[in-house]
Amino acid sequence: MKTRVAILISGRGSNLQSLITAAAARQYPAEIALVLSNNPAAPGLARAEAAGIPTLAIDHRRHGRDRQSHEAELHAALQSHAIGLVCLAGYMRLLSPFFVAAWQGAMLNIHPSLLPAFPGLNTHERALAAGVALHGCTTHFVTETMDDGPIIGQAAVPVLASDTPETLAARVLAQEHKLYPATLAAVASATLPAPAPAAALSHLRRV
Ligand code: GAR
Fold first, then answer.
1. Which of 4, 33, 40, 108 has its CA 20 to 30 A from that of 133?
2. Would you say the CB of residue 163 lies under 6 angstroms from ligand 1?
């Protein structure tokens, strides 16, 4: 039986698309069963609809400053869809301890840097300003600290002298689109890294 996965998004949804595409394969161990957004205008919602995946927009602005009541609504939606794993994919809201505890060990995130370097926003600009030779992306289990938690996988790209934040972001994003499907496959099948094709997992390491 496939693990039922919910993807949480806030915007464009290109990582969501990479997960939808990977999950269409018959042997993929996870099924994208729900896409949730805190932003009703998120373009990513249309990608899910086009794939026939149920979507829900739960607008955080309806809850004012009450983060927990927004997350209680998210949590109820996840439960009513019998979700087993949650993937944050460009979900740009801090999560409160209540929600993180409820999904501990069952919630993943992708971040556009080689964590622990450059948590937070504007990672590509900051990597260029710091003069690093390597940049990349990280998948990890979610903890209460933003862009923190046990690392599942990383993919690195060289930083070129000619790079702008945009060219670097594009090269990192191409890696994100490989790393997240491989990570979800590994976690969903609960064995790192045996069940997925060896080539797809060559950049994963054990937690
Ligand atoms: C991705 O680059 C993702 O790594 C990043 O937001 C982008 C979402 O793009 N996430 C974070 O910065 C989380 N701290 P997408 O909507 O096209 O997947």
1. 108
2. no
